[in-house]
Amino acid sequence: MMGANIRRQKLATTNRIFAYLIHHLQSLVFSLGKIYQAPTTTIMTVAVIGITLSLPGGFYLFLKNIDALSGDFRSSSQISLYLDLTISEKQARAVEQQIKTFENVVSTEFISRDQSLKQFREDSGFGKSIDTLSSNPLPHTIIVEPPDDVDTFEIKNLLNALQAIPDVEIAKLDTEWLERLYTIIEIAKRSVIIITILFSCAVLLIIGNTIRLDIQNRYQEIIVTKLIGGTDAFIRRPFLYGGVWYGMLGGLISWLIVEIGYLAISGPLERLNLLYQSELTLVTFSFHDFIILITSSTLLGLAGSWIAVARHLNLIEPT
Amino acid sequence: MIEFHNVTKRFEGGYEALNNVSLQLAKGEMAFLTGHSGAGKSTVLKIIALIEKPTRGQALLNRINLNTVARFRVPYIRRNIGIIFQDHQLLFDRPVFDNVALPLLIQGYRRAEIARRTRAALDKVGLLHKEKSMPITLSGGEQQRVGIARAVVHKPMILLADEPTGNLDPVLSREIMQIFVDFNRVGVTVMVASHDLALIDELDKPRMTLEHGKLILNDLDTTQVGHAYDQDN
């Protein structure tokens, strides 16, 4: 009969499970205590992790804002109709009424030549030069608003139908620049994925190396623990939790860095907003984003420490 | 409890630490392992503690063959052994209490139970008043006693000590040895490696002597004429 077995049975199963959970909690607190005892090292490690993660985090936030911005464009794919310069306002109004009956037209807006000129005079600052012109060079304009949920094919059909009206000089749907923008956003998105992968690897290495040093510093403790019957799992646990703490705190730091950066930028951006009279609203990390950031940095910490522990802990044996 | 059958231990490079050593120590017995340094005393203890494996021959602990123990079972077997080192192997980053409590923590005892047993072990070695001290503030003899308290706190069946009095003066050494005798009296199997022959002579316990890896004297082996352990010794 194995003495070890007898001894193990001495503790009731429920007690053992309870003790096991308690030990997990103790390791968690103990590893946090270790971190607290060596604040300089910890702060440096955590800061490096935070800065590293703040780059993909910042890029993500940037993209999120661009996406929100381009979403606004997407829903406002208007068609501008520039009418023949020779037709009267009455004729132009008649064209507008005709267009209102078209399929896929939600609303129209009529801007007369005079209105256009007046607007241009006010906005451009070229008032004096305009006065020198003998006639108004601007045509009557009709802005056609298609429904939000309409697809590109139907928009193209509508555009062709509008272009076919005799009094319409130019029907313009400016989608090309939008498509270019989407492509650029797509490139940026993929870049962010690459950056995220690369920087996650960096975090993995940073945490792995920190834990490796930690294992070396606690060489004696590991030896003694092995000698008095500590299992590999028992010895591994505080190091794994150490990695978890590094990852979690690093994630928090990176979140702080990005939020501070956001605050620093948001002031001038709002001024820019006012200058352009646009309805831009900046978005920051949502609660959902925050949870994902912290969870993934924590998991990175766990993975990094796991690698270090698997590589170095088994090599330490009492002699 | 401990059985060695023709155990040979050869280290890399050809150095032979043990040569065909056979010995037995029954449950509840206490014996001294003597010999000059380098005679193989530590190797015997290391084989029992699963730190080294025999090159040839069989070593058994509690009828478990130590040659073939799977890695994952090693910790559970070690929990039956209390080991005392010459250099104490205390952890200097935590107080005496935490050092002594470590074996209980490893085995998943409840807090209250840990506190109770740890204080009992410290009381046994006369250091209950030092439980909050850091090991570095203790004298050599006190550190060794903390080491002993840690080795016995989980009530192991076997106590192994490797030169426990190596760095201590005669009075302290005698105190330490007396602690081992006391543990043996309550049923713990004890094996102490020591070259302090004067002190061993004072204690009425069987001896096993090693020389250059060979067992040249064994008081416990009655088949060996002339070396039989004499009760009146």
3D architecture notes:
Chain A has 319 residues and is α+β, with helices and mostly antiparallel strands. Chain A folds into 2 domains: 188 residues, no CATH class; 97 residues, 2-Layer Sandwich (Alpha-Beta Plaits), CATH 3.30.70. Helix content of chain A is 73%, strand content 7%. The relative contact order of chain A is 0.15. The N terminus of chain A is likely disordered. Chain B is of the alpha/beta class and 233 residues long. In chain B, strand 9 and strand 10 form a beta hairpin. Chain B starts with a strand and ends in a 15-residue tail after the last strand. The interface between A and B is medium-sized, with 31 and 29 residues.
Note the main sheet of chain A.
Answer: 4 strands, antiparallel
Count structural domains of chain B: 1
Backbone CA Rg of chain B: 18 Å
Spans where pLDDT lies below 50 across 5 or more residues of chain B: 225-233
Number of helices of chain A: 11
Strand arrangement across the biggest beta sheet of chain B: 6-7-8-3-9-10
In short:
The complex is a heterodimer of chains A (319) and B (233). With 319 residues, chain A is α+β, with helices and mostly antiparallel strands.
What keywords describe this structure?
heterodimer; A: 319 residues; alpha+beta; Alpha-Beta Plaits; four-stranded antiparallel β-sheet; 11 helices; elongated; disordered N terminus; B: alpha/beta; Rossmann fold; six-stranded mixed β-sheet; 10 strands; globular; disordered C terminus
Structural topology:
The complex is a heterodimer of chains A (319) and B (233).
Chain A lengths: L2 H8 L2 H25 L1 H36 L4 E5 L5 H12 L6 E5 L1 H12 L2 H5 L9 E5 L6 H12 L4 E6 L2 H42 L1 H9 L4 H45 L10 H26 L7
Antiparallel strand pairs in A: 1-3, 1-4, 2-3
Chain B lengths: L1 E9 L5 E10 L4 E5 L6 H8 L7 E6 L2 E2 L8 H5 L2 E4 L11 H11 L4 H14 L15 H13 L5 E5 L7 H16 L3 E5 L3 H6 L4 E5 L2 E5 L15
Parallel strand pairs in B: 3-8, 3-9, 6-7, 7-8
Antiparallel strand pairs in B: 1-2, 1-4, 4-5, 9-10
Helix pairs in contact in B: 3-4, 3-5, 4-5
